[in-house]
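Q: Joint fold for the lines below.
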Amino acid sequence: MKYFKYFALIVFTITLFFSCSTKGLIKSDFDIKNIQNSEFQNSDSTILFKTEINIFKNEFSGITVIKPTENQSHRIVFLNEVGMKFFDLEISNDTFIVHQMFEPLNKKSFINMLVSDFKTMLFYEIDIDNSQIYQSQKTKYFVLKSENKRTFYYLNNDFYYHSIIKKSFLRTVQKFNFIYNPQNMFKEIYIEHKNINFEMNFERI
Amino acid sequence: MKKILIYTFLFLVFYNAKSQPSGFTAVKDINSVSEKIKKSSLETKTLDSDFKQYKHLSILTKDIESVGHFSFKAENKVRWQYTVPYNYLIVMSNGKMWIKTDKKVQTYDTNSNKVFKEINDLMVGMLQGKILSDPNFKTKYYENSTTVLAILIPQKPDLKEFLKEIHIYFSKTDYSVSKLKMLENSDDYTLINFLNQKKNIEISDSKFSVK
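A: Joint structure:
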């Protein structure tokens, strides 16, 4: 029984080791200059999205306005179809301002999640210079694996970001999917939290 | 002393200009106007209209425009159907509220949901003009040759939080609502223009439920 315990521990450790490694991926000498910046990174135009937010079985729908502002920040306003604002946030690399928050949503934990999600979605967190590039053996997808954070940026065949996956020690905790139109502009963005009941869907208007 | 008088005069001129909406003067006989609005409201059994909505955000150079169709049936049946920029339907009837999108239909009990009940009461009250006698609002009346403008200032803290003023425009031809403007504390606003209005036409009850 004692030996079985040791055996189980070794198997667990090996499984853990391999699950945390970049399994199925090989280091690539792909030039990072080929990576296409997202619309959020290189455009100064405002984008409107038809939006659905589901948080702990509460559903909110409406329109999200994402507008780049001066000082390299973004203004994000989510309002319902009738025009009532749910929230109005301003996000930059190292800070954020809550201009308005609908009272039932005005919880510190929700605001922090929202800010973190938008920072990832708007590519504030990406640090290409401190990332390593891998190529999948099975597919042509490339993965940018951040050294410090367990965040994986997947590129499609045109070298645009098609998903972002955030992992905890053992499993995926968050997934961002980006769907593009033929002009390589955002058509749809989907954010899913795996550990809590929180998802956001953005369809370009 | 002379300077004080000049400054006082200028202050009064600008204060009055600011407190009175442009193109309107204060209504002198408020009782007569509110009676006409009340009479029109009581006579309105159904209302059918197209609408164009403008959402003004100070951060945008161009308003967000929505287009749709609106139907009302006394006492409390309301149907808002947005067709542009996308399909979205809100129906409120007898304590129930339905929201229909391309993907799904959601049903809410407005009697058990405080937020939806307030939205429901606010919308029905604005469209019927009943909101003018609501003690939760302080009302001021203005007019010009064609229109009566009622400016409502919310008094309840939960409404004050997201609404600064409601402007209801009544057409002097039949005292029905022609335009609604909801101003937020940030001075962003939602403006709804009612177009092609038809009063007291036959509207089936089936229009006020969603399956």
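Q: Anything notable?
A: The helical segments of chain A are 2-20, 39-42, 108-121. The interface with chain B takes residues 46, 48, 50, 52, 59, 61, 63, 65, 67, 69, 75, 77, 79, 81-85, 88, 99-100, 102-104, 205 of chain A (CB under 8 Å).
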